[in-house]
Sequence to fold (409 residues):
Amino acid sequence: MKVRAAQLKAALPVIILLSGAVMAWALVAIRSETGSPAPANEAPPIQVMRAIPQTLALNVRSQGIVTPRTEIDLVSEVAGRIIKLHPAFVTGNAFKAGDVLVALDPRDYDHAIVRAQALVAEAKHRLAREEEEANQASYEWQVLGKEKPPTPLMLREPQLAEARAKLKAAEADVAQARLQRSRCEWRAPFAGKIREKSAGLGQFVQPGAALARLYAIDVAEVRLPLTTDQMIYIDWPINTHMQGNQHKTIAPKVTLTAQFSGALYQWQGRIARLEGAMNEASGMLHAVAEIDTTNMVKDSAPPFLPGLFVQAEIEGRAQMGLFRLPREAVNANRAVVVIDAEGRLRIRSIRLLRIETDHVLVSDGLAAGDLIVINAIQAPIEGVRLRYEIVEPDSGSGQSQNNSSSNSQ
Fold:
């Protein structure tokens, strides 16, 4: 009995090891029968697009602030107390051309007119008297029959000239008094709005005092800074050519965009002129865009207010044979990755015409139909065969074309 117990005790580890091996083999066999898929080693296909030459308008983008083309200060030319203000004499209100915006107390100037008219009457009386005396002196000389010719003083010619000069001076004083009287009413020279107001009813003003700041609402301007590179894409200077018997100016169109009351609005205008000097600090030249604002109220358009910040897109010249690619397709060395006819990777240098926000314009280095890789490849290797998927730019859908390759990225 003791011998059998010792033998059983010695065989127990062997039995346990055999049982574990059988169980492990059974688990492996069951797992192989389930057919679990092995992890895939192939990377997904890269996306490519066909290079299509296009004729594109090389528009130029800029920005600026709206300013009125005409803006003046309303300054008093005479002294007086304000006795009347136009109902529109409030910041932001509109007025018409010819409206009396401010009226001063005119009584002092009415009195000045009366006094000047009295001086005119006195000067006329003196002139008439001098004329009669000159006629009498001439008659007396002829009656007396003097042998020597009369002197001008004897004929009272200097006195007569003085009387005539004093009459002209008195008449000039009347005109001056009336002019001062007319300046008591300040009429608007154009249709516009009040931008700033600095005077009120009953206030006494002195000559030279600023009463308000006005601006015209017919035309607004926007100064648009342009770099020398941007100016290449626009027809400068503004062209003038003959159409029939008349000169016609062709100015580039400009579209202005701004957010107003939570909505995006656009206004159309034209480049009116270029400023005459470069900005020394920025090295830019400013183009001035003009926008006709007279019909905005009739058209229910939003107000084109001074001080509004707007984005501008200036119409540029059209150029043929350009390729428009996503920015991701061009690397830092200004090169693109293309797929040749055998499905192999090729690195090609290109010439960039312009870099835009989301795209680049290529002018040289590509041919129509080239397959351009638009995925970012970390380390492209020349000659590697790749699987790719063609993405059509217009629809965004792609077609897969599988190519056998021993290497893939």
